[in-house]
Amino acid sequence: MIKIIIYIFMALIGFIAIYSIFNAGNPESLIRIVFPNPNIDIYIAFISSFIIFILGFLVFYLKDQTNFKNLLEINKDKIRYLRKNGKTDNYIADSILQAMGKSSGYTYNIAKKKLMIVLSEFK
């Protein structure tokens, strides 16, 4: 539900961004109803584009967290078994990533950090 609301905001603000970019400085722009000064158009375009960037990042982050949570949910019995045998979240994250074919590198480090966050929330 949150994703749908974010997508709707992205579409609305995206329309504002596109409209303000293509009508910057136009004295007959619809933006003149709210902001009579055409010098504001560039700021409107920049701010709306920045908001789109932030919302896009938020959608990516939520999707990423959901995928890791689904991965842990699929492997919950194995994770609980490893924890019961005294294995740390670091060890569990390493074993999950190795099973996925990731053993080193930049993407491995990023995935491990995200997986450790989700593992810390996993009961």
Describe this structure in words.
This protein has 123 residues and is mainly α. It folds into two domains: 1-63, no CATH class; 75-123, no CATH class. 74% of the residues lie in helices and 0% in strands. The protein has helices spanning 2-22, 41-74, 76-84, 89-99, 106-121.
By oligomeric state, this entry counts as single chain
Radius of gyration from CA coordinates: 22 Å
How large a portion of the residues is in β-strands, by DSSP E? under 5%
End-to-end distance, in Å? 24 Å
Whole-number count of domains: 2
| SS content category | mainly alpha
Please describe the biggest sheet, giving its number of strands, its sense, and whether it closes into a barrel. Answer: none
Helix coverage percent of residues? over 70%
- Provide mean pLDDT, rounded: 84
